[in-house]
Amino acid sequence: MLLMIQIIFIGIFATLFMDVIAYIREKLFQIRSLNYAFLGRWILLWKDGTLTHENITLVPVVKFERVIGWFIHYLIGIFWVYVYLVLDHLLNFNSLFLSSISFSLLTTLISFLILQPALGFGFFALKTPNPLISIKNSLLAHLFFGIGLYLSYMWIRPMF
């Protein structure tokens, strides 16, 4: 039970760190991150059996999509922390910092191979106007999640 509480807090703070950096990047450099309403829209439309879209941005807004999208975003962060800590337990990572960064960058593959195609953006965002910029931004977002994972782990773990 204690471990699950740690996982939840680390996941929330790692995801929050990623989001704060995304907010700063948007304010300083006008670099927009994924609109999590699209994630919510995608999830909410599963009930209709719609798992993929030609372009999710053209699909009508669904009630509560923004709230659901943000909730799922944080739930995914918690899930990835759980997976990371299970792998750390099994593989005994030597460097928590390097392993958290490497792991978080690997999670980008899920976005590239599942989420982006399902939203209609193509594998590796190839259907977006600037795929390389989309790829770079996804990698940076996940890099910051990894840094947040490391910082949160170092801060929260000793408290319990």
From TrEMBL:
Keywords: Membrane, Transmembrane, Transmembrane helix. InterPro entries: DUF2938. The keyword Iron does not apply. The chain crosses the membrane at residues 6-24, 67-85, 97-126, 138-156. Pfam families: DUF2938. This is DUF2938 domain-containing protein. It comes from Acinetobacter shaoyimingii. The lineage of its organism: Bacteria, Pseudomonadati, Pseudomonadota, Gammaproteobacteria, Moraxellales.
